[in-house]
Amino acid sequence: MSTHASPATPTAPVATGLALSEAEVLRLRSDFPALAAEVNGQPLAYLDSAATAQRPASVLDAEREFLLTSNAAVHRGAHTLAGLATEAFEDARATLADFLGADPDEIVWTSNATDALNLVAYGIGNASRGRGGEAARRFALSAGDEILVTEAEHHANLIPWQELAAATGATLRFIPVDDAGIYTLADAAAALTERTRIVAIGHVSNVTGFVAPVAEIAALAHERGALVVLDACQSAPHRRLNVAELGVDFLALSGHKMLGPSGIGVLWGRAELLNALPPFRTGGSMISTVTMTEASYLPAPQRFEAGTQPVSQAVALAEAVRYLEHVGLEHIDARENELAQRMLAGLALIDGIRVVGPAAGVPRAGLVSFDVDGVHAHDVGQFLDAQGIAVRVGHHCAQPLHRRLGLTATTRASAYVYTTTEEVDRFLAAVAQVRLYFGVVTAPATTTTGAQA
């Protein structure tokens, strides 16, 4: 019996050019059962992958095969099935480590990226109240220390730091964004001070698609002795990452955004930091010795993995990583930038549309958020849904950013490895009809089906 998942075998071959071609994407789509669905009598155009990605059959099969043949508690049993489950679980950890250019002992399983970010913030909070001994003193915060975020952060990379500041007396500061919702390296440098102890930023904005200059910011932060925490939720699914090249100290990602299952995320941290950070959760499986009055904890990563772990989800996430690597992150990234530029070009031809984020022609992630003058984003989303087009609407868990932009909500369309040009053009043609449908204008809006990439 074996729990090792077979290598991913996408229908589409490795791309013949830098960007996946339309033909290669069309072949890839057959790997995704959900994309064959119809919604409201129309073929599904799934443009909400920035929220949750669809899963290829190989990922679904990997989790099912594990549950059918090897399901058992890991690191606990002496029987054969437990050994096989543990082997699969740790093989998955090694796969994620290779994906990030890290060591397996630096990969901590979490329930999602939000959980991973909270683990770091609350671990630092524990260190600040004296837990963790001498090794943890490097993390301790007090009044006068500063935590630096950006005005564009997802709530998951903002609220934990708000709580940490409130608990320790530290000051929470932010790098401001401009009217497009983006910032520069100079803005980040100006916000850093000698009292900055933590810098927590998103690699890619889930609203604007802006790609932060992470390595440069990390270098500036380290000059001041600050730790750097990276939210990689919107980058890990789409572009090749290497933690050494990024220069950060902690990194969080979420499985469901990168073709994997829900209920699993990853925290990567430099080994010496993980082994010094006090644990956030306590209980079984993360201890070395327990008496009735005290406990000592295992080294990382087990010190952060209390309780029963998401074993089948880890196996499936590893298969998702193998799938992405087979297709090629560089090919996926290039393809998505082409689609984003096509969306930008098409939206620019429609009256009453305000797009946020980098200007057309500037590299961005494969997502575009926009406001339709006179029509609430939720109404836009319902109109598109009636035509089988799935998008995201709302503040996308980034209320401060929307407030800075003078908006309460936007509509977001996001592409992924399976998104076709035809789906983007369907989306543009539908958006062109929104204001007419809701009576905001009486003349037909400009159509965009001929938009060029």
From TrEMBL:
EC number: 2.8.1.7
Residue ranges of every copy of the Aminotransferase class V domain listed in the record: 46-427
Protein's job: Catalyzes the removal of elemental sulfur and selenium atoms from L-cysteine, L-cystine, L-selenocysteine, and L-selenocystine to produce L-alanine.
PROSITE patterns documented for this protein: AA_TRANSFER_CLASS_5
Reaction it catalyzes: (sulfur carrier)-H + L-cysteine = (sulfur carrier)-SH + L-alanine
Entries under Pfam families matching the protein: Aminotran_5 (PF00266)
Entry's family note: Belongs to the class-V pyridoxal-phosphate-dependent aminotransferase family. Csd subfamily.
Species annotation: Microterricola viridarii
Alphabetical list of NCBIfam families matching this protein: sufS (TIGR01979)
Keywords of the record: Pyridoxal phosphate, Transferase
Keyword set includes Transferase: yes
Protein name, entry field: Cysteine desulfurase
Source taxon at top rank: Bacteria
Molecular function GO terms recorded: cysteine desulfurase activity; pyridoxal phosphate binding
InterPro entries: Aminotrans_V_dom, Aminotrans_V_PyrdxlP_BS, Cys_dSase_SufS, PyrdxlP-dep_Trfase, PyrdxlP-dep_Trfase_major, PyrdxlP-dep_Trfase_small
BP-aspect Gene Ontology terms: cysteine metabolic process
Required cofactor(s): pyridoxal 5'-phosphate
Transferase is among the record's keywords: yes
